[in-house]
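// run 5 | inverse folding | seed 20
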């Protein structure tokens, strides 16, 4: 068996095993998930993803370079996923979702996210392979996303009542408002079919997942266009988000500046994708020296794959350290850092 084939077998086997364990934990848990338990499970899934990176380093024919791209992609996608979970927390708060229903909703959202990412990855790589200029479009999209992430308050980003799919479902489908129906998407009463408020929340979560996928795929493709790296780093980043959700909900104060860090990462990756295009344009306009210099940035980052990893890692580290310091100074008695 070839080494790359073996890595694919390891990946899909791990994916199935992790998904089964995570699903069993969610569906059979009777008590609410505490912060410490959630952090332990989160740490386990991160270790699984890192263990796979070691397998890449040892088994892949181009182990070191692919290892660097995988880690860079994983950190970027994981940080995006963490920021996205803040949005889920806000959606649940605004829509009054009970604690008992939240694990199932997150789990459904993760499965939907994985399907969407696979679809977007397949089509995205195919389009970029045929139309390389689309990388410049993706880069511009990331820069715009970075700006909107900083300029827009979290509360303004999430308005369930204005979600077009939510409004359509609530308008055209009968809704049964039995407060006991907190974990079912559909219900049947007196021989009639109804959707539940749980279904409406899932509609909002699902449509939000589409936006997340639109942001995340250009981000990873700014690091690598290798289907193996793009797919594995993306899926490992969303596995285990159920436990991460409850960890974040309990220690939200420690992530105050994460959104700023993520936006800087998106700006950095988007800039890497755009600069060669600007260089090519300047070259056409006669500014050959500057143009060639800018065009060479893409080649430089491909040769020095560790540079992107170092920048992404430092940005995340600084944003987390600043968040911890801020929380400690602003709320010295907060349980988040005790």
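// decoded
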């Amino acid at each position: 068996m070839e080494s790359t084939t073996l890595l694919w077998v390891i990946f899909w086997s791990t994916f199935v095993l992790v998904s089964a364990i995570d699903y069993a934990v969610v569906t059979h848990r009777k008590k609410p998930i505490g912060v410490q338990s959630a952090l332990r499970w989160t740490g386990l899934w991160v270790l699984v993803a890192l263990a796979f990176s070691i397998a890449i380093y040892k088994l892949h024919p181009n182990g070191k370079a692919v290892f660097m791209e995988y880690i860079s992609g994983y950190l970027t996608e994981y940080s995006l996923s963490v920021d996205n979970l803040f949005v889920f927390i806000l959606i649940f708060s605004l829509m009054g979702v009970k604690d008992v229903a939240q694990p199932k909703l997150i789990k459904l959202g993760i499965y939907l996210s994985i399907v969407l990412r696979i679809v977007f990855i397949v089509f995205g790589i195919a389009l970029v392979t045929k139309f390389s200029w689309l990388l410049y479009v993706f880069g511009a999209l990331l820069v715009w996303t970075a700006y909107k992430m900083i300029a827009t308050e979290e509360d303004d980003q999430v308005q369930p009542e204005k979600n077009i799919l939510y409004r359509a479902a609530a308008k055209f489908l009968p809704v049964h408002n039995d407060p006991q129906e907190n974990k079912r998407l559909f219900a049947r009463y007196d021989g009639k079919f109804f959707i539940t408020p749980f279904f409406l929340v899932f509609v909002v979560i699902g449509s939000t997942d589409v936006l997340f996928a639109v942001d995340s795929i250009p981000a990873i493709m700014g690091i690598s266009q290798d289907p193996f790296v793009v797919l594995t780093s993306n899926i490992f980043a969303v596995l285990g988000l159920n436990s991460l959700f409850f960890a974040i909900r309990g220690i939200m104060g420690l992530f105050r500046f994460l959104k700023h860090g993520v936006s800087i990462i998106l700006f950095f990756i988007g800039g890497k994708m755009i600069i060669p295009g600007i260089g090519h344009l300047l070259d056409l306009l006669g500014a050959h020296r500057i143009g060639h210099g800018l065009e060479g940035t893409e080649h430089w980052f491909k040769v020095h794959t560790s540079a992107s990893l170092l920048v992404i890692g430092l940005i995340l580290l600084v944003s987390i350290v600043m968040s911890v310091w801020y929380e400690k100074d602003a709320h010295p008695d907060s349980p988040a850092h005790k």
